[in-house]
Amino acid sequence: MRGKEPKDESFGFFTSRLYRLFSNTFPSMKSFYSFIISDIANYRFSSMLDIGCGPGILDAKIARMFPKAKICGIDPSKDMIKQASALAKREGIGNLEFAIGKNTEIPLDFKFDLVITTLSFHHWAVKRDALEYIAGHLADGGKIAIYEFLKPEKGIGISGSHSLSVREANSYSEIPRLRPASVATEKGFIKVVLEKA
C-alpha cells in the first residue's frame, strides 16, 4: 500500500484574509519585507516570478520599484490570487499579474530572470524536485532566491516550523541545472540563492 503523496500547505477563504492582515500589521513581517525589498533592489532583471505570492503585497512593492519589469506571482490558493489580483487592479499596477500555480506547476510559458519565494519554501512538500523543476523556468543566468525566517540549529525559534536553518539551506547545493547554493543570514532572516548552471 502506497502512502499519501505529500502536499503543500494551502490557504482558504478565512486563512488567506488572516494572512493578509498579519502581513500588514506584525512588526516582524514589516521587517521581513524590508529585508527582501532591500536585497531585491540589488538585482537587475526584466522578469520576476514569485512562487507562493500570497495576497500580493510584496509583489506590488517590487512592481513599483521595477516599473519596466514583468512581475508575476503564483499561489495554489485561489483566495490568495483573488486578493492579489484585486490589489493590482485597485492600485493600477500594469506590470503585475497573478495566476493559480505552485512550485511544481508553473502555468506561465516564460523564462524568468529571477524567481523568488518568501515564507513559502518551508511549506513545500518536495523541495529538491521543485527546485529542479523551477530551474527549467529560469532564463540563462537566472536566479532563484529563497527568503525565510532563520531557524536556529538548536531549539525551535520564534517562528517555529515556519523557518529555515542554515544546515538545511546548505543541503540544497546539488540540484541538477543549478549552481551550489549561497546562503546568507541577517537580523533573524535567511536568504538562499541558486543560479542556473
Instruction: List the domain count as a whole number.
Output: 1
Average pLDDT level: 87
- Tell me about the largest β-sheet: 7 strands, mixed
Oligomer: single chain
Our count of helices gives 6
In terms of DSSP E residues, the strand content is: 15-25%
Q: Would you identify the regions where 5 or more consecutive residues have pLDDT less than 50?
A: 1-6
Strand order of the largest sheet: 3-2-1-4-5-7-6
Q: Count of DSSP E strands? A: 7
Summary?
The protein has 197 residues and is of the alpha/beta class.
Describe what you observe in this structure:
With 197 residues, this protein is of the alpha/beta class. It has a single domain, classed as Rossmann fold. 32% of the residues lie in helices and 24% in strands. The chain is built from 6 helices and 7 strands. It has helices at residues 13-25, 27-40, 57-65, 78-90, 127-135, 166-170, and strands at residues 47-51, 70-75, 96-100, 112-118, 138-149, 182-186, 189-195. Strands 3-2-1-4-5-7-6 form a 7-stranded mixed beta sheet, with helices on both faces. α5 (127-135) links the parallel β4 and β5 (138-149). Residues 1-6 have low confidence and may be disordered.
